[in-house]
Every structure is written in structure tokens, then in C-alpha cells.
Amino acid sequence: MTDIVTFGEVLAEFMALETNQSLGAPGHFAGPFPGGAPAIFIDQAAKLGSGAAMVSCVGDDAFGRMLVERLAADGVDVSAIATRPDATTASAFVTYHDDGQRDFIFNIANGACAEIAPRQFDGVLAGCKLFHIAGTSLFSGHMIDLARQAADRVKAAGGRVSFDPNVRKETLARSGARQALTDLLSRTDILLPSDSELNLLVDIDDDEQAVERALALGVSEIAWKNGSHGCRYYDGATVTHHESFAVSEVDPTGAGDSFGATFCTLRTQGMAAADALVYANAAGATAVSRRGAMEGTSTRAELDAFIDSHG
Ligand code: ATP
Ligand code: MG
Q1: What is the pLDDT at residue 170?
Q2: What SUPFAM superfamilies does the annotation carry (predicted)?
Q3: Could you give the domains of the chain?
Q4: Is CB count within 10 Å lower at the N or C end of the chain?
């Protein structure tokens, strides 16, 4: 049974070893680490025991084989990840700065994952309870169409849609981008913004008014991530704040995806939102304490142990 499905990029990530290292000069990098926002999300969902599948494409290369093997080893159904012999697996290079900013060079839109075909969804969408859209995967009109079509299929069959916008000002400047994202927002049940993403998305500076707008578009739950400050939760009836756990941050990449996947998976398994948010904060805190975006995903037993040891 596949309860949770996502689509988009699986990629090989390389991290600069020095803080403030330039991506424009020779330097030392660690990697390849498995990465890609939807890949981290689905890895975390599988580790929590839900049937979880990913729709993607990799090249016929060592990165692709590493990624598929890693997802499969963590329990992800990889039957809808196709190998494209003429394409190269996506990759990313990242460097961290003192002020917490990150610089990326992505080979995603020009990577194998850009070649997902609509029929790849056919084997995994039946019975899907939650379809997750990562904003990072919406890099072309083709990918936006795939997201819209899969969301419609899942909703028509009674499932829900989660959406982590990961939107930036530059993304919204592209022609048609705002309308496309608003279309997806109106299909979203669980919204997972961070920082000022929701404000950008609905073009409203005031947080509470931005939330009202999202709820009016049909969103039923919002878990608003705020790094070391934890998260806020809105469902139209209640507003709650949940402190994050105190940890020392080693690598922030992937925290949002581990958090979102934990919240959505446990909600799909029937857990109350207030409890699922504690687990989600624990998953985000665990993710930032480990180097490598997917190295920070956790099993339920690991999250229970983390919560016990952190009060
Ligand atoms: P990403 O970089 O993956 O896109 P994001 O911006 O979507 O991340 P964040 O708000 O950075 O999401 O992190 C998600 C969650 O992870 C937070 O709500 C919090 O629970 C946890 N978290 C993030 N950073 C820290 C930290 N420094 N200490 C403790 N918990 C953290
Ligand atoms: Mg994010």
C-alpha cells in the first residue's frame, strides 16, 4: 500500500568543507551525499513506517544508482524512479556563510529528473492518501503540470495534498509563476511554509492576514517553520506555537523537509496535530545536527529517544 507519494528531484549533493568557501574558486568539497527536497521528504516518510513512493528519473550513472539504492534501503518504493540512459542524474553544490546564508549551484532543470513522464505516476497513485509537492521541483511548466495533475488525481480519490513552497522573490518574478503557485495553493490541504514564504506567495505582509488568505483558498492546516524558533500551527480554529529543541546546528539543509515529512506522515497515520508537531520539531532538530541533507532523517524509535532525552 502506498500512502504517501511525492515527485521531483533526487540529486547528489556536494558541500564545501570551509565556511565562506567560494563556489567560484578551487576548494575542497564533501560528497556525493543523497539529497533533493522531495527525496528527503519521502525518505523520512518511509522511515516512519508509511508506504512511501517517489516518482523521478535518474541517469545511468553512479549518482543515480547510489540514490536509488539509498532510498530503497530506507524503505522507499522506487518502482516509479526511471533510469534515462541519455540523461545525467541531478546534482547540487552548496557553500555556507558565517551569517547562515547558503549559495547553491544546481544541475536540476538540466538533469534526468526534468524528464519525468506523466505515466510514471500510474503505478503509485492508487490509494495514495497524501501527495507532497516540493516547491523546488516546480522549475518548469512541465513539472508544474505534473504537480497539478497528480494533485487532482489524488484529491479526486479522497487523498490530501501537502505543499512546501520554498518560494523566493526571484521565482515569483518569472512570468506565470504566481498564478501557477496560487493554483497549487488552492489544491493544498497541508501547507508547510518557512520564513516569509507564505507572505511572498499570497503577497500579504501581515502574517495573520496571509494565513487567512491561505485558509480562504482551501488550505486546512498550516505548519509554519521558523528554524531554531520552532513553528506555528494554524487550522482555522486554533493557533499554537511549538518551541524547537535546543541542538547545535551542523548543517541546516533538509531540516524543513524532515520536519514537513514527519508532520504529514504522522497526521496521515492519524496522530493529533499537537503531537505530530512535537515529532516534527524533533525531526527538524535531528536533521540540523547531522552533516548531509538526507543523513538527518529519523525512525519513530529515534525520534522517541530524542524527545525523551531532550525533555
Ligand atoms: P530548509 O533549509 O530545509 O528549506 P526550512 O527553511 O524549510 O529548511 P527551517 O525553519 O529552517 O525550515 O527548519 C524546519 C524545522 O526544523 C524548524 O521548524 C525546527 O523545528 C527545526 N530546526 C531548524 N533549525 C533548527 C535549529 N537550529 N535548532 C533546532 N531546531 C531547528
Ligand atoms: Mg524550506
Answers
A1: 82
A2: Ribokinase-like
A3: 4-309 (3.40.1190.20)
A4: C
